[in-house]
Amino acid sequence: MRLAGKVALVTGSARGIGKSIVERFAAEGAVAVISDVVNETAARETLAGIEKAGGRGMVEMFDVGDAAQVDAAVARIVAAQGRIDILVNNAGITRDNLLMRMTEEDFDAVVRTNLKGTFLLTKAVSRHMIKQRGGRIVNMSSVVGLMGNAGQSNYSAAKAGIAGFTKSMARELGSRGITVNAIAPGFIQTAMTSSLPEAVQKAFLDQIPLKRFAAPEEVAELALYLASDGAGYVTGQVIGINGGLYM
Ligand code: NAI
To answer: Which residues contact 9 (CB under 8 A, 6 or more apart)?
Structure first.
């Protein structure tokens, strides 16, 4: 098993890509810390599924954009598990609109959850990883952070910010044995994307050389690689998984 004995915290893992990641990590022997801000029932169901399959984990509900909640949750996890080896900053939201219609609240909310949340978690968890002399941090960027997307100025700015943050953290934390990478998914079939109008989905599909959207499990596979010992010399990278949509 590739993550035997590791403790992995994945934010926003009650559903979607985060859920696939905790399930995959637990199947590889990690203690999966499932965390989300809403939907504790779904988070507990995810844990029950992991335990039924013979895996281990726990649930911690908190808002990634709230520093006090983040610090308290990380302290509880370290108290319960003794350590955190892997952090996946996956929690994210969209509030799409064209610039002229985008409100300040929608801009701030998206930057708060996606970008500030990644900063707060990285700060709280890397403190422990530094003491442990090692760790793996995987941040969730997006293809639109690299190529832009009309109607997503807030989201693409936050996701491009995550790419820059990832590279700075890789430089700061590398000498401590901590790798920091980002995944930039293209179009993945989750609740976040199924709410997009059919015409928008078709327009994306036309531009994807592999002519299909991806399953969350395919992103989990890349997250597993980046979190594993085998990726020890990979850091500061923003790795696309997009069917060729952007290259
Ligand atoms: P999702 O909406 O299905 O899941 C996101 C989870 O994050 C939800 O369970 C939600 O409750 C949680 N969350 C939201 N705000 C939070 C907060 N303040 N604190 C803690 N948890 C919070 O989304 P999906 O599709 O699984 O996306 C996961 C990540 O992948 C996000 O960062 C998203 O931006 C990114 N992504 C998704 C793509 C896609 O096509 N689905 C493409 C590129 C990136």
So the answer is: 33, 35, 60, 74, 77, 84, 86, 87, 88, 121, 125
| Mutational test site, ligand 1, from 34, 39, 112, 192, max ligand atoms within 8 Å of CB | 192
- 65-107 residue pLDDT tens: 999 999 999 999 999 999 999 999 999 999 999 999 999 999 9
CA atoms within 13 A on the CB side of 222: 21
**Residue whose CA lies nearest to ligand 1 atom number 18:** 63
* SS3 at position 9: strand
Strands of the sheet with 135-140, listed across from one edge: 56-61, 31-36, 7-10, 86-89, 135-140, 178-185, 238-241
Q: Per residue in 206-228, pLDDT tens?
A: 999 999 999 999 999 999 999 99
- Tell whether ligand 1 has an atom less than 6 A from the beta carbon of residue 118: no
Ligand 1 centroid vs 92 CA: distance in angstroms?
A: 4
Angle between the 40-52 and 16-27 helix axes, to the nearest 10 degrees?
A: 20
Verdict on whether the full-model pTM lies above 0.85: yes
